[in-house]
Design brief:
Isoleucyl-tRNA Synthetase, Domain 1, 47% helix, Rossmann fold, 18 strands, seven-stranded parallel beta sheet, binds 5'-O-[(L-methionyl)-sulphamoyl]adenosine, 2 domains, four-stranded antiparallel beta sheet
């Protein structure tokens, strides 16, 4: 893969249920990263899709009395629709039930077999269908009353005894620890890295990677009785979707970033690099695990009936508001609470007061007083320099924050610029200047319009529609602008006439 390529992925979503705010969160974060990298001139590949095999899906189809294939086709469509609703710029949507994916999975299996990484034995132990994961005895708790057994996730486990192929995970313990050491950025945030490293240090058991008691999965090559463990099949999506085993997959491999929820870090940071190293394929460069959302302080769950439907939030508050809120409200990596009150606070303060007000008042004055006309700036005074140079100053910080998936810091930097611009409006009072010194007033306003355009460029990965809307008002478009324009002061179209602007964010009482 060349240095100018960038590959980011979401987890592929289980189709046993409809999409909710947790899926929207991961997808939006990846979209922002993809958009930023494109804006920065990288050849970007953004992948999302659906995870359609395994017992959990088979059971969900049965519950609806549907044919499993028809069920996954229908449910997968909901996730595909969500990519449109969220304005995602994914370049591909992978489904694990597609033939190319099955073939890629079987190809990897054959390599693992050839490399003597797989053996046949019998699995005896606990399995949670909801997590699609195996658990050791010491991870299981028992409810005293019902005697039911539970995994650390709170999901019930069942005892499984069946013939199974095993992957020799135990032999990868030291090699994984060595890999983490040599690649200190492999897992983020640090708290998760520590968790993974200590788990691996405690020792790894060989991993059961096939099942025989149901059939909804990818067939194991040369042994039709077995289907591949759903997580092995699922992880391989990151390769199958970019053309593996054809050499063309190398255009985007190793992936730069897999963004996942904290619940599935173990699969991505332990099993996945072990499978890849065993198959002699380079592991991805980074895995970042984000936190979980609660709803008004309560765990989100179907049984509590408090699942947040992103479609409803978007209908009520708008898509860009949701995108902004999810990334601003909590540092990426931490858990967050979704509450109407904090959402409204963000709309009223950050969006309507700070951003909306700046755009509105500056464009209104230009429209009313300068005949809507922008001009070349004639003189930059010392007192202008702070604001004039500010975008350039925050550019590096923003790039670095993106590299570390610190979206809240990206937003903080942009809002510092917005606040500088608002301060500049107050200090220079262009409405007064217009009466005394029209030329200076013109310069002040043109500087402000230039800064607003740069704010819109900075904002475009996070709030693409808002950004396009602001830029259109000043005769520009995100389609023609890149991050390079942050260091360029001559891209304003001075023949464009600014029309009377409408309010971009309504306050909510
Ligand atoms: N199919 C697996 C992933 C396979 S990737 C090779 C899976 N799917 S999932 O649909 O259950 O979850 C997808 C993502 O949604 C996970 O990263 C999970 O953390 C995230 N979320 C589900 N509920 C969530 C919240 N309440 N809050 C934030 N994200 C959560 O796991």
């Amino acid at each position: 893969m060349d240095d100018n390529s960038f590959f980011v992925t979401t987890p592929i979503y289980y189709v046993n249920d409809s999409p909710h705010i947790g899926h929207a969160y991961t997808s939006i974060a990846c979209d922002v990263i993809a958009r930023f990298n494109r804006l920065n001139g990288k050849k970007t590949m953004f992948l999302t899709g659906t995870d359609e095999h395994g017992l959990k899906i088979e059971q969900a189809a049965k519950k609806k009395a549907m044919n499993t294939k028809e069920f996954v086709d229908e449910m997968s469509l909901d996730f595909k629709k969500l990519t449109k609703t969220l304005n995602l710029t994914n370049d591909f949507f992978v489904r694990t039930t597609e033939n190319f994916h099955k073939k890629a999975s079987q190809h990897i299996w054959k390599i693992l077999k050839k490399n003597d990484e797989i053996y046949l034995d019998k699995y005896k132990g606990w399995y949670s269908v909801s997590d699609e994961a195996y658990f050791n005895d010491d991870e299981i708790t028992t409810d005293k009353k019902t005697k039911k057994k539970f995994a650390p996730s709170g999901n019930e486990v069942q005892w499984v005894e069946e013939e199974s192929y095993f992957f020799k995970l135990s032999k990868w313990q030291d090699k994984l620890l060595d890999f983490y050491k040599k690649n200190p950025n492999f897992i983020g945030p640090d708290s998760r890295k520590n968790e993974v490293v200590s788990f691996v240090k405690n020792g790894l058991n060989d991993l059961s990677i096939s099942r025989t008691t149901f059939s909804w999965g990818v067939e194991v090559p040369d042994d039709k009785k077995h289907i591949m463990y759903v997580w092995l099949d699922a992880l391989i999506n990151y390769l199958s979707a970019i053309g593996y085993p054809d050499k063309k997959y190398k255009e985007f491999w190793p992936a730069n970033l897999h963004i996942v929820g904290k619940d599935i870090i173990r699969f991505h940071a332990i099993y996945w690099p072990a499978f890849l190293l065993a198959a002699e394929i380079e592991p991805p460069k980074r895995i970042f695990a984000h936190g979980w959302w609660t709803n008004e302080g309560k765990k989100i769950s179907k049984s509590l009936g408090n699942v947040i439907d992103p479609n409803e939030i978007i209908k009520k508050y708008g898509l860009d508001t949701l995108r902004f809120f999810l990334l601003k409200e909590v540092p990426f990596g931490n858990d967050g609470d979704f509450s109407k009150e904090s959402l409204q606070r963000r709309i009223n303060n950050d969006l309507a007061n700070d951003l909306g007000n700046l755009v509105q008042r500056v464009l209104t004055i230009v429209n009313k007083n300068l005949n809507g006309q922008l001009n070349k700036i004639k003189e930059i005074r010392d007192s202008d320099k702070k604001l004039y140079e500010y975008p350039k100053e925050i550019l590096k910080t923003i790039e670095l924050s993106y590299e570390n998936q610190e979206f809240h810091k990206v937003i903080e930097s942009i809002w510092k610029l917005i606040s500088e611009a608002n301060k500049y409006v107050d200090e220079n009072a262009p409405w007064k200047l217009l009466k005394k010194d029209k030329e200076r007033a013109g310069d002040v306003l043109n500087i402000l319009v230039l800064i607003i355009a740069k704010i819109a460029i900075f904002l475009s990965p996070i709030m693409p529609n808002t950004s396009e809307n602001i830029l259109n008002k000043i005769g520009l478009s995100t389609k023609k602008l890149t991050m390079k324009h942050i260091n360029n002061n001559s891209f304003l179209n001075t023949t464009f006439k600014i029309k009377k602007p409408e309010i971009i964010f309504q306050k909510i009482e």
